[in-house]
């Protein structure tokens, strides 16, 4: 209700975009120069490259035919729901079609991209999970043999790392072989960190990569050793991610899986933030992102 009341006028919404995006110094989204003047209709013109543009040019709102208020409401709903929000719910709350709601959701998810910089230090837990391929409810004639455990015949592997008391990094991977995962670990985890994993052989090279490596043997039902050697942190993130997928989205396309992962990583890393603070952060990301072309 507060979002609706605050952005109750289209001029107010556009002016808010201008202030958040540029402040008092408008920058041309085409040539990045500052020689811009404002027309009476609210649009801008760059005196350097002669392009006309608006406050939505180069953002996720570019060329939208929807009122900005609907976008802002959708962004608030996405940011405030701990288990995500479906396109059907956005459809009902924003009074748009389901196709439009799906498009809006994926545009907003595009703001969640994870940083490629090293960010995990100290004690880091890592684990892999496999999404999809649930054979239980399939007809016998449609079941696939040999899909148990770490098989990727009908499942998509996801690799994740979490710093104790800190952030999580997760991504879809082609496979869970050491040759695939070790470069990811080297990229995101500082050398010398203490790493906790399960007994999978893919983590055997962590020591030679410069990490202290300790593990628990899940195969022998060992889940905690010496009080603090465990992977319960990353397992907790997987449990949350699965609940979101199965209870809210039900079915996730492999093509868009990384966006769903990014969304839950962002939500997990900002779990101590208030809904208002998370919305403000998303709003700033939406204003500053530069959309070169439609990626759908």
Q: In brief, what are we looking at here?
A:
The chain is an alpha/beta fold. The chain has 9 helices and 8 strands.
Largest sheet: 5 strands, mixed
SSE class: alpha/beta
User: Taking Cα atoms only, what radius of gyration do you get, to the nearest Å?
Assistant: 23 Å
Helix count?
9
The strand line-up of the biggest sheet is 6-5-4-7-8
State which percent range the strand residues make up.
5-15%
Shape: globular
Poorly predicted parts? 291-296
What is the typical, i.e. mean, pLDDT?
Answer: 87
Provide an overview of this structure:
By secondary structure, the protein is α/β, with parallel strands linked by helices. Helix content is 36%, strand content 13%. It has a five-stranded mixed beta sheet with strand order 6-5-4-7-8, sandwiched between helices. A three-stranded antiparallel beta sheet has the order 1-2-3, with no helix packed on it. The protein starts with a helix and ends in an 8-residue tail after the last helix.
